């Protein structure tokens, strides 16, 4: 990406194009004009992953065009990444250039940073890691003031913590999050705060309960829990469930029950198709759900889960794929109408976009 790509005029034109695409997809459903939440033009991405490429006797950060694993693009700095990633990149490179224990058979580096200034670096190797590597990694972690995770076949060594700590502000309250290595987190922290604030406002203050599907590490769960009596949240990933439980405890939130179920399994439980031991002790009938909140993967909701959401008066839907969002809305359009929608530019300088809709029963 060349410097001219970061001109404000180019960004404004691209954001307008995304807005028009979202309008096109949602117009058949009578959607109102989308609220648009822009991104910083640079230094917005909190995660980055690089392969290493050897050239002139040195290892360099490298990326590749999709489908091409043989023509590296060597990276010295990465203007879309956070200031902290750009600060750490040359310092890590200088360390591996003089430390064989760190550089030997190192083939991939992943950075995870946060708006609050924390950082976790994962180093992946084509060799077994031993005590000598761990000693060198401890020196590296101390020099860079980060946590380090080393990965090789069948082994994972943690120096420091295996998560980064984040702090996000919604409606004047600061929420603190653990973001585990390898688990999904929103890549654009600034836009994530805007997205959380929009969902918080769209939900409104309620006197009933919230069902949340695909809750991840509790990114939305924490602020939304303050708007309702109680929340039943589901997530299938063990690492995300553990992080969400820690985040609920660290933020003193006690009105959320979290169960490790997929959206499809919860649909079966609510339909009384089959019992689940993981729901033992949870009486689903005691909830008075007024709203369901969903943030599904790119494939959107499966047909059965989409039918499940139809039961609720209000559906608050965050989507990373507007095409599958439109498909799901088409299934729900006979019973629900869009009353609010939004575009969140999580991925500037790409065609990808995040969107949100509030659907209410007709």
UniProtKB/TrEMBL annotation:
Gene3D superfamilies: 2.40.50.1070, Vaccinia Virus protein VP39
A Pfam family: tRNA_U5-meth_tr
Catalytic residues identified in the record: 320, 354
UniProt keyword list: Methyltransferase, S-adenosyl-L-methionine, Transferase, tRNA processing
EC number: 2.1.1.35
EC category: transferase
Signal peptide residues on this chain, from the entry's feature table: none
Molecular function terms, GO-annotated: rRNA binding; tRNA (uracil(54)-C5)-methyltransferase activity, S-adenosyl methionine-dependent; tRNA binding
Binding site for S-adenosyl-L-methionine: 186, 214, 219, 235, 295
GO BP field: tRNA methylation
InterPro entries in UniProt: MeTrfase_TrmA_AS, MeTrfase_TrmA_CS, SAM-dependent_MTases_sf, TrmA_MeTrfase, U5_MeTrfase_fam
GO cellular component, one term: cytosol
The keyword DNA damage belongs to this UniProt entry's keyword annotation: no
Recorded catalytic activity of this chain's protein: uridine(341) in tmRNA + S-adenosyl-L-methionine = 5-methyluridine(341) in tmRNA + S-adenosyl-L-homocysteine + H(+); uridine(54) in tRNA + S-adenosyl-L-methionine = 5-methyluridine(54) in tRNA + S-adenosyl-L-homocysteine + H(+)
Function: Dual-specificity methyltransferase that catalyzes the formation of 5-methyluridine at position 54 (m5U54) in all tRNAs, and that of position 341 (m5U341) in tmRNA (transfer-mRNA).
Similarity remark: Belongs to the class I-like SAM-binding methyltransferase superfamily. RNA M5U methyltransferase family. TrmA subfamily.
Descriptive protein name: tRNA/tmRNA (uracil-C(5))-methyltransferase
